Amino acid sequence: MFDFAQLQSSKVLAIGECMIELAFPEGLVGNTPNSRIAMGGDTLNTSIYMARMGVSVSYLTALGLDPYSVWLQDQWRAEGVGLEQVKTIEHALPGLYAIQTDEHGERLFHYWRAQSAAKQWFVGADSVSEWLQILDFYGVVYVSGITLSLMSQPARDAFCEALKQWRRPDRALVFDINYRARGWVSAAEAAGSLNAMINLTDVALPTLEDEIALFGGGQQTVIQRYRDAGVQELLIKRGPEGVLLVDADTQELVPALQVQNVIDTTGAGDSYNGAYLSARIKGMNPVDAATAAHGLAARVIGCRGAILPK
After folding, report:
1. Cα–Cα distances in Å, from 30 out to 22, 27, 36, 101, 304?
2. To which CATH superfamily is domain 4-15+41-63+114-300 assigned?
3. Per residue in 248-278, pLDDT tens?
4. Domain boundaries, the chain
5. I want to staple 139 with a disulfide (CB 3.0 to 4.6 A). Which of 9, 104, 173, 222 is the partner?
């Protein structure tokens, strides 16, 4: 397992996009009694849960100057998430998505994000030196496959090169594959980009379903690919079955908590990642950290939305 005690700094930089969320329960669309406007984004959700647990975390994204961009930053500031890496693009707007949940809490998403401020910034972020200036302030970098899907290929190449130069034994790159096919030109592009990031990763937090959807095979195939890449700490999320902790020599299943009334699975994996990573940064062993993370994820799927009321 990765030795978090050796970190030079426990300050975390999470990278990605947060969007305006239109939430419609139980498949309904329109001005229903339980519809609402909120916010969401995989790495932002994780950042908020980390901040709530006392971890120093900042968020790298881009927004505009509009009232919605201001509102988002106000929410993050109130949660304790650092804003020093939020970029501003004049006349650009945040992304938008609508989410519907069925009677089992499963989700259907519709996105309007092609011209979002974050998309515009990440597409053009192709300077290795600029990335290094950003990364050098942080001891832990957290990124997901959705983050990479926002970038152009030159930007992904520059980001990977900067990470190669940033990495040291006292720093940790944490990665969740979080594969969403609609964000990529092709499965081949996604596989190449995600594998390149896996080869740089110290701590990996993938979901088994995502791995199989993109790469095929089964659980042991997933384990072998991450081991071959040199990943030191691997936690495979398997939904209601729990998580599998894997290092170079061992595998251990940590069962999930059983939730009788699943209302909304949005953000379950994001909250899990936030709780697990926070616990590990604070010195908790992997099994106890995984168990604690199950507790938070169980609460999240019992409520509407990705982010629990504070």
Report:
1. 10, 10, 10, 14, 17
2. Ribokinase (3.40.1190.20)
3. 788 999 999 888 788 777 789 999 999 999 9
4. 4-15+41-63+114-300
5. 9
